[in-house]
Fold this protein.
Amino acid sequence: MRRHHPNLQLKRPGRGMTLVDALIGMSLMAFGMLALAGFQTRMVAQTTEAQTRTVAMQFANELLNTALVDPGNLACYSLPAAGVCASAVARAGTDTWGLRVGNGLPGPVVVTSTQAGTRLTVQIGWAGKASGDDRALTVVTDVQ
């Protein structure tokens, strides 16, 4: 038979977390998950803005490249129409391009294309989807 020393107390077995400890742990986890959700929301908004800017750049490059392969009709690639255009096909293509840009970007879209000598400047403005702030893209090339 074993005898215990009278001054030694037996340790009580652990009873697990207390309710307060559990609530604190769940609160910390909830705040962490809210922070992750906010981060994800910002990342989605930034990705959307980047995709929209890419689409605007593709539209601008499309018109500039069309003008580069048809330098004789450079006046036909201005929006709004300015100067004398010798090609009804080029003028119609530019007008159609302007409509596609307006339909392909969010918010009110402003599209201008101006010619100065052999230089063609394309400017596209639109409203950001998430923020509603004005966005703008300007692309310039020399057509020769």
User: Anything to note?
Assistant: The chain has a mean pLDDT of 87.
